[in-house]
Amino acid sequence: MEFETLAIHDGQAPDPVTGSVTVPIYQTSTFEREGMEFNGGFVYSRIGNPTRKALESTLALLENGRHGLAFASGVAAAMAALQVLRPGDHIVSSMDIYGGSYRIFKEVMQPWGVETTYASGKTTASYESCIRPETRMIWVESPSNPLMRIADLRALAAICGERGILLAVDNTFASPYFQRPLDLGADIVVHSTTKYLGGHSDVMGGAIITNDGKLHTAIRNYQATAGAIPAPWECWLIMRGLKTLKIRMKEHEANALHLARFLEQQPAVSRVLYPGLPSHPQHELAASQMEGFGGMITIELKGGMHAVEKLIKGLKLFILADSLGGVESLIASPSRMTLWALSPEEKAARECTEGLVRLSIGLENARDLEDDLSSALEGC
Ligand SMILES: *Cc1c(COP(=O)(O)O)cnc(C)c1O
Description:
Elements: H1 3-9, H2 50-62, E1 67-71, H3 74-82, E2 90-94, H4 99-112, E3 115-119, H5 124-128, E4 135-141, H6 153-163, E5 166-170, H7 175-178, E6 188-192, E7 206-210, H8 213-226, H9 232-243, H10 245-264, E8 269-273, H11 283-289, E9 296-301, H12 304-314, E10 319-320, E11 330-332, H13 344-349, E12 356-360, H14 366-378
Parallel strand pairs: 2-3, 2-4, 4-5, 5-6, 10-11
Antiparallel strand pairs: 1-7, 6-7, 8-9, 9-12, 11-12
Helix pairs in contact: 2-9, 3-4, 10-14, 12-14
The site of pyridoxal-5'-phosphate has 16 residues, from helix 3 and helix 4.
């Protein structure tokens, strides 16, 4: 079955008791046992809950993976994936990653004894040169936040496979509709389901999908033990989001492509970073591993922070906010908002300049969004 059919029908057969067309929200902490022996059914909602199970099953299918797990947030999912490492192990990460993932490496993993080396991520060789004998994981985002760099996932998977290193891919920006890293050779896919999968800026969640039974068991045991699970209501909301993921992603992309082309023509804009534009340095690579380019655009304004402030002030439709992937268009300044906590040196190493602006293109009419940007850019 195809993507949109799976998103709507998997695990979602009408409830056998009531005929309810949607999966019920099993708002319960515990389940009656038939006897004192564990019989494989539901016992306690931290360990397993039918609403969460339905979501986990659909998440796995959409990533074309065998096993899915849902978490209370994207960073909870990242933490769970990183628990397969042990003190003394080493991570190679791309430099350009979500600020919260960077914070986990620096403030949680490092004190725990797991070091991370950051590759520029501009080439596959930049990752390879960071590998040490104790490297156990390569962690990448593709497209990355906020510079929209593309990692060659097939090439990285080959390098990891040769050396017994796990390849973990944060697939939040692309969504499984546009990119399925497991098919390209990745071992672990991580999501913030808060973003496109939920899709309506009204729920937090995270997910891990893998084909490897051993990895899955280890991460599932960690999920049950550490307990960063989503509530049944959250699971239900994310499942509702998944049902329209295809049509939303297509429209996010159509709007983003329209606006990226428009922004390329604007004198106030020095760079437009969108993998769907032929001017993107890795456009061909993106086209070879993605089925679409998503709804995120990063631009750089010639006028630096002063121009960014003016743009933000002049916009009427774009909302100044940190998240992404919802139906409404959002704007953020990486240097002042999502990456504000980094030192000037860390920002410089990441090429996070003051003139950068990250746009999450929503589902409003493309012409309305263009008009909004056009008039706000006039004064920049
Ligand atoms: C938001 C985000 C996360 C973290 O997810 P939360 O749901 O906020 O915990 C991780 N990776 C990327 C790429 C994100 O955009």
